[in-house]
Automatic annotation (TrEMBL):
Organism for this UniProt entry: Cupriavidus laharis
Keyword Lyase attributed: yes
Keyword entries, A-Z: Lyase, Magnesium, Metal-binding, Thiamine pyrophosphate
NCBIfam families: oxalate_oxc, PRK09259.1
E.C. number: 4.1.1.8
Chain ranges of the Thiamine pyrophosphate enzyme N-terminal TPP-binding domain: 22-138
Enzyme superclass (EC): lyase
Family to which the UniProt record says this protein belongs: Belongs to the TPP enzyme family.
Cofactor: thiamine diphosphate
Molecular function (Gene Ontology), one example: oxalyl-CoA decarboxylase activity
Taxon lineage: Bacteria, Pseudomonadati, Pseudomonadota, Betaproteobacteria, Burkholderiales
Protein name: Oxalyl-CoA decarboxylase
């Protein structure tokens, strides 16, 4: 009888060992598809999912706020071309991550927001479950796709669909809803293994129609004042060599949008960045590569664009064409295939643009660079935006492989114009929405994904949105150097309460704030600097040491302009006093 009992126990143990559950299937599905990192914040009902992911070899970066974790996942997608994964709890945690999901969708960053949720039968009857919310319905308008998995055997399908939706066509954010009960469901391990899907060719090439390529090349050949405009889609596409070959073979001046900087070095002789206003107004044919004619490009209309012009647009989405102005030569397909096709048709007989156009562009460029140089090279006390940026410009020139994260108002706008980039996908900023608060999430993800140092430049206002993540940076000992341009307020730190009352002006902060003390409080390195020499020494030491560092760079409180360079978007009150 004892032998029979032992045999039954052995069979029971084998049967138990042959089981798996929803927790493990989610992790196995992600790992099967090459996803190694999760950005999130553990809590009910996903705490054990985070623990088990770490135990099974995934890197789980636990943040202090879900929005910052979501921003990390979004930019991880841009950097890696694989969906960045953000894991949140239900209801409020989901909502915190939703802003980042919408940001990813707007900017075409592949991202998956995975959130635990309440059980459907309770949500649908509105019976008041813990953090009850119909998250799937809320997510749909803000995501490229949204899915819910109710049965453990469907987890593999759910993950596969989320991955394919995130990266195919125009990339974007995807929501995946995992009710709490799902994660604890068990099934036979072999059945679970067979239910998983390794996604094959999730972002297949989409070749452009040959006649669309011929039309585009004919327009370029007939142009008198051509311009190539590169967007962040061109950087994401990783068609770096062909894009450079197209620019150099045609001899056409090019203008990179901020996150396309570095596709070719900003010091390239054909770069027209320093003559941006001139080339946009004067060009007659503009080739858009992964760039949209949205508000960042004045919708392709008005004074910014000067006289009539013809547009060639490369985009994977046919519905993007004619969204603001007529597109004379739409080229629909993935950027790599489209650029390669155009390059193949250009031929060695392609005539370079007329000399009078090139000379006019480069004369304007040289004049503006000289004017900029005068502002950068001034020595003023306290520092202003330009003198402080001169230091960071030199730092990045000496360290071109580091990632540069940038957010703020004036801090963002001036840096876009001043700091040169030399390698692609190294400049990471607020993107299409201009949303504040991406800085620390981006910095964490850039350090994790690239395994290289990160320099994050924030205005003091922008830093406030995600500043608590300095603890995350210290906890994971990431090689991130944060520089805060501190001028005591939003835009400026000198505004006064118009009533003369005791409350400060709505745009001012505590004068002389010491943000560096925050970093020191968590074990990192803090530095308070007031001169360019001190700023240079502090940043270089941070990059040399690889230690989490925050440099509080004191800037003239009167430096800065209202809304940076977006004053036209901030209507002034017409109320009479």
């Amino acid at each position: 009888m004892a032998e029979v009992g032992n045999e039954l126990q052995r069979h029971a143990a084998e049967e138990h060992q042959a089981q798996t559950d929803g927790f493990h299937l989610v992790i196995d599905a992600l790992k099967l598809n090459g996803i190694e990192n999760i950005y999130g914040l553990p809590g009910i009902p996903v705490t054990d999912l985070a623990r088990l992911a770490q135990a099974n070899g995934m890197r789980v970066i636990s943040f202090r706020h879900e929005q910052n974790a979501g921003n990390a996942a979004a930019i991880a997608g841009f950097i890696s071309q694989k969906p960045g994964v953000c894991l949140t709890v239900s209801a409020p945690g989901f909502l915190n991550g939703l802003t980042a999901l919408a940001h990813a969708t707007t900017n075409c960053f592949p991202m998956i927001l995975i959130s635990g949720s309440s059980e459907r039968e309770i949500v649908d009857l509105q019976q008041g479950d813990y953090e009850e919310m119909d998250q799937l319905a809320i997510a749909r308008p803000h995501a490229k796709a949204a899915f819910r998995v109710l049965h453990a055997e469907d987890i593999g399908v759910g993950i596969a669909r989320a991955i394919r939706a995130a990266v195919s066509g125009r990339p974007g954010g995807v929501y995946l809803d995992l009710p709490a009960k799902l994660l604890g469901q068990s099934l036979e391990a072999e059945k679970g293994r067979k239910s998983l899907i390794k996604v094959v060719d999730p972002a297949p090439r989409q070749l452009p129609a040959p006649d669309s390529v011929d039309r585009a090349v004919a327009l370029l050949k007939g142009a008198k004042r051509p311009l190539i405009l590169l967007g962040k889609g061109a950087a994401y596409a990783r068609a770096d060599e062909d894009i450079r070959a197209l620019v150099e073979k045609t001899g056409i001046p090019y203008l990179p949008m901020s996150m396309a900087k570095g596709l070719l070095p900003d010091t390239h002789p054909q770069s027209a960045s320093a003559a941006r206003s001139y080339v946009l107004a004067e060009a007659d044919v503009v080739l858009l590569v992964g760039a949209r004619l949205n508000w960042l490009l004045a919708h392709g209309k008005g004074k910014t664009w000067g006289g009539p012009k013809q547009f060639i647009q490369i985009d994977i989405s046919p519905t993007e064409m004619d969204s603001n102005v007529a597109i004379a030569a739409p080229v629909v397909g993935d950027i790599g295939s489209c650029v390669s096709a155009i390059l193949g048709k250009v031929g060695n007989d392609f005539a370079k643009p007329p000399a009078d156009w090139l000379n006019a562009v480069y004369e304007r460029k040289d004049k503006n660079l000289a004017k900029m140089g005068e502002m950068l090279n001034k020595e003023v006390s306290p520092m202003n935006f330009h003198t402080a940026l001169r230091v960071l410009k030199d730092v990045i020139k000496a360290n071109p492989g580091i990632s540069f994260v940038n957010e703020g108002a004036n801090t963002l706008d001036y840096a876009r114009a001043v700091i040169d980039m030399y390698e692609p996908r190294k400049r990471l900023d607020v993107g299409t929405w201009g949303v504040m608060g991406v800085g620390m999430g981006y910095a964490v993800a850039a350090a994790v994904e690239t395994k290289k140092p990160v320099l994050a430049l924030c205005g003091d206002s922008a830093f406030g949105f995600s500043g608590m993540e300095v603890e995350t940076i210290c906890r994971y000992n990431l090689p991130v150097c944060i520089v805060i341009f501190n001028n005591n307020g939003i835009y400026k730190g000198i505004d006064k309460n118009p009533t003369g009352g005791a409350d400060p002006a709505v745009t001012t902060f505590v004068p002389g704030a010491r943000y560096d003390k925050m970093m020191e409080a968590f074990g990192g390195v803090g530095a308070n600097v007031t001169t360019t020499a001190e700023l240079e020494a502090a940043v270089n030491e941070a990059l040399r040491s690889g230690k989490p560092t925050l440099v509080n760079a004191v800037i003239d409180p009167s430096a800065g302009t209202e809304s940076g360079r977006l004053t036209n978007l901030n209507p002034q009150s017409s109320a009479k006093k």
